[in-house]
Design a protein that fits this description.
With 84 residues, the protein is mostly helical. It has helices spanning 14-21, 75-79; strands at residues 26-27, 30-31. The chain has one domain. It is built from 2 helices and 2 strands, in the order H-E-E-H. It has a two-stranded antiparallel sheet with strand order 1-2.
């Protein structure tokens, strides 16, 4: 899409876009490569969401399967050099 549209439409650098395509890896609902330590995600009541922004603050709620995740919601951090 970046090649099809003007550079002003998609401003993300190529390395960040590539990071968003990858599998971030995990063991069940425990992230491995995803830098969840860098951002505090909370729900509408201010409760911390686990393990990341697509998780839930309720322990009994469904949790994302980190080993199959390809969301890359934190790729902007890694794209600009923050690694944990």
């Amino acid at each position: 899409m970046k090649k099809k549209f003007d550079d002003d439409y998609i401003i993300n650098p190529d390395n960040q876009l590539e990071l968003m395509k990858k599998n971030w890896g995990g063991k069940g609902t425990v992230p491995i490569d995803c830098p969840t330590w860098a951002i505090l995600s909370v729900d509408h009541m201010g409760r911390e969401k686990k393990p990341c922004c697509i998780g839930s603050a309720e322990n009994s709620s469904m949790q994302p399967i980190c080993e199959e995740c390809g969301l890359g919601c934190y790729s902007v951090l890694v794209g600009y050099g923050m690694k944990g």
